[in-house]
Amino acid sequence: MKLALALVLLLSASALAVEIDEVTGLIKNPGWEHVRANCGGCHSLALVTQQRADRKTWLDTIRWMQATQNLWQFEPEIEAQILDYLAASYPPSPDQRRAPIPQSLLPKKESPVQ
Ligand code: HEC
Predict the structure, then answer these.
(1) Which ligand 1 atom sits nearest the alpha carbon of residue 50?
(2) Number of structural domains found in the chain
């Protein structure tokens, strides 16, 4: 009985765990094959998996590579899947960027020296 319970817990835990592709290190969320196919040619995919950003910043990164690093253009629906994947799999993490300090906690601006 105890064994059966342990087994159930073990199985449900592994179902919840993030699956990581052993070869690329990419999290196997929907769309990961597009990232495998398009994002590892110029640099290691570790550059992708180490990055944390929201969708907008991921898009900015892609636009920057397209403008300056010869990254090709994507079909809009492929690009959307890549961005969905990146934003869901590698979202901003709290230890990377803190929230802005509220205005009420900031020092008051000094009046200009006269
Ligand atoms: C055509 C070449 C090329 C391809 C393909 C490419 N990149 Fe890049 N990427 C670069 C170059 C060059 C850099 C700068 C590398 C460096 O600083 O060492 C870079 C840097 C990055 C960085 C680091 C940016 C930073 O702010 O430090 C990330 C994240 C990144 N790429 C993600 C991606 C993703 C996601 C894809 C797929 C959509 C991709 N790259 C595909 C050329 C490419």
Answers:
(1) 29
(2) 1
Three-class DSSP category at 20? strand
Ligand 1 atom at minimum distance from 72 CA: 1
Record the pTM: 0.78
Q: Is 8 a member of any domain?
A: no
Q: What's the CATH number where 33 sits? A: 1.10.760.10
pLDDT in tens, 53-74: 999 999 999 999 999 999 999 9
Query: How many angstroms separate the Cα of 102 from the Cα of each of 73, 98, 107?
Result: 39, 12, 11
Residue of minimum CA distance from atom 25 in ligand 1: 61
For ligand 1, whether the C-beta of 38 sits within 6 Å is: yes
pLDDT tens digits, residue range 5-41?
776 666 665 556 789 999 999 999 999 999 999 999 9
Q: CA-to-CA distance for 23 and 1, rounded, in angstroms?
A: 38
